[in-house]
Amino acid sequence: MTLLPMTPASTDAFDALPAQPQVLLVDDDEVNLLLTGIALRERGFRMTEASSGERALEVLRAHAPDIIVLDAIMPGLDGFATCRAIRALPGFENVPVLMLTGLDDDASITRAYQAGATDFFVKATQWSLLAGRLHYLLRASQTRLELERSKAKLARAQDLARMGSFDWRRGEHGGLLMSSEALRVFGFGPHERLSLRSLLRMVPRDERRALMRQLHDAARSSSVLATDAPIVLLDGRQRIIHVDAEPEFDEHGQAAGYTGIVQDVTDRRQAEDKIRHLANFDALTG
Predict the structure, then answer these.
(1) Nearest-angstrom CA–CA distance, 121 and 103
(2) Are the C-beta atoms of 18 and 45 separated by less than 8 Å?
(3) Do 138 and 119 meet the contact criterion of CB atoms below 8 Å apart?
């Protein structure tokens, strides 16, 4: 496989990276270890070196690098086994691992990815290209961490607001997909699967027909849906759920389903009812 030169990133792209990223370099060949270490130091990296997979695991138990450069072919614990062991260490599930291989074949590349490598690099003396690849992986890793943090903050905000999202698709291969926060709104665990039919059964019988008619009308005309629905949770508690959904269309302009949010608005509705009562009725005489 031929490696193509990467398009240089802007200086701003690396502003958030460590000034001198810490690299753990693992290679049983002393000459390769020396030359690669010197080349990366000259390009602004701080280096820790290990001459075997076993030694690398010892280093990682006391030291957490920003990125790991790992030779694939080594005696004893080879790079593939070492990578799997690294991924099993607590806190190292997402540390970028660049696998160095002298074998430019699909089988070795596939093995590297299956072992948990983030990317691979064919061994060569193209030190600037190697340094560029490391910077790219570091930036990609940081972006991924920022996305994970944003997702966690959003999930927390939705949880506090008693809100969650859902996606419903038409057809035999469609169905209802709900976020863990949406499942929690209905009193279910994050890994449970619910159908639209089972959710409708939670609506009291005397309210269910009107709600189903509203859903059918919205689906038939592909219009926005905004409604409140009373439900009874499995533990018997009565709640009011607000549903806000917009239609989704496929590439042919045909209605494909809906995406939206559900929110427990019971407390808000009770407060509104109390305010309305206080505004219209005398507090002493009722």
Answers:
(1) 10
(2) no
(3) no
**Does pTM top 0.70 for this prediction?**
no
> DSSP class of residue 162?
T
What is the C-alpha separation between 118 and 139, in angstroms, rounded?
13
**pLDDT per position in the chain (286 positions), as tens?**
333 333 444 444 445 567 789 999 999 999 989 999 999 999 999 999 999 999 999 999 888 999 999 998 899 999 999 999 999 999 899 899 999 887 667 788 888 889 999 998 888 788 899 999 999 999 988 888 888 887 777 767 766 667 899 999 887 666 899 998 899 999 998 888 888 889 999 999 999 999 999 999 998 899 999 999 999 999 999 999 999 999 999 888 888 999 999 999 998 877 777 777 677 776 667 6
Location of structure tokens 């061994």: 123
Cα 8 to its chain centre, rounded Å, is 27
Q: What are the DSSP calls for 65-133, one per residue?
A: -SEEEEES--SSS-HHHHHHHHHHSTT-SSS-EEEEES--SHHHHHHHHHHT-SEEEE--S-HHHHHHH
H-helix segments, the chain: 30-42, 53-60, 79-88, 106-115, 127-160, 180-185, 196-200, 205-221, 266-280
Cβ–Cβ < 8 Å for 109, 1: yes
Tell me which DSSP letter residue 155 carries.
H
Residue 173 in tokens: 């291969």
